[in-house]
Amino acid sequence: MSDTLKYHLLKGLSNALCSMSYDHILEIGKFLGPVIMERISKQKKRGLEQIQTGLSCDRAEAEKLLHKVYQHIGMSAMEMLYMPRLVREKDHIDDYIGLSHPEYLKACYAEGKGIVGLTAHMGNWEWLGAGMALHGFPTSAIGKKQKDDVLMSIINDYRAMAGQHIFLTGTGGYEMIAAARAMKKNYILGFLSDKDGNKVGVPVKFMNRFFSFPQGPAVFADRFDAPILPLFIVRNESGKGHVIHFEKPFHYERTGNAQKDLLINSQKMASIMEEVIRKYPADWLWFQHLFWTGPEKVRMLAVMSPEDIRTVFDGLSYPEDKVQELIHLASAKKESENE
């Protein structure tokens, strides 16, 4: 199928959905989500494993939760294509997306330093940015360029339609400069932080696993002395509509040791995300490929103290001999540098 044909088919589907009631498109998505997702065996296996590990539950409980996750994914997909209708009805935005504790957001804007938005793949994260923009708040986000150029084009059109500014990684480096400028204009800059940080990530504990946490939120908060605002969009229990929950903001903690600061603040952000996920487990994207960077590949571990390495693995089911090996490698590296 050509890109042009694919584009027109998706736009046609979007137009058709936008002519329907909100209740109707949700019912379609709730049905299609499990029908489609149950057939993707790799994601299903990963999702079940990560639910069982993260929530310490049995397979039956994990299957029940994953089915609900699939229903939510289906509804979110329909809502994404429903974005033009959402924009047209912005005067009634509260009927679709409400705000919980917006005073935290307003207090952050009042500081005038930009805002680091800590969020995750919760609820309909595309409606998170759209909802904030349609409520009248200057909104931007760091996003990942998708492999599907046609889908990416439509998503970006709809983001712009809602008033969002998205800076895509992997597009040549300019996106980071533009994101910094957005901070200087006192925008909120959202970071989807439940993504593997690769070898340059920060080692943390997350959902009962070792996790390479992306550096972005900590780096921007430190550089701009900006408040960090946890915010997560959660679907209403009925399935209809969402609420954006703003949590109490905080500032980058500084101890005088840059490495320790990065560890402390990253672990704090990971723990906040975990707390929200445990509170609203059906809203999180459990099957995403999160934990593919092992400890041996994370550069930061090689320069950490034995005490800090042990803190990362404390309480995790990670082999003691592997922890000792990481400590030995870090110690050997430090001795080599001191010679």
TrEMBL record:
A single GO BP: glycolipid biosynthetic process
Keywords in alphabetical order: Acyltransferase, Cell inner membrane, Cell membrane, Membrane, Transferase
One Pfam family per UniProt: Lip_A_acyltrans
Chief location bin: membrane
UniProt xrefs under InterPro entries: LipA_acyltrans (IPR004960)
Keyword Nucleotide-binding assigned: no
Superkingdom of the source species: Bacteria
Ligase as UniProt keyword: no
A GO term for molecular function: acyltransferase activity
GO cellular component: plasma membrane
Localisation: Cell inner membrane
Name of the protein in its database record: KDO2-lipid IV(A) lauroyltransferase
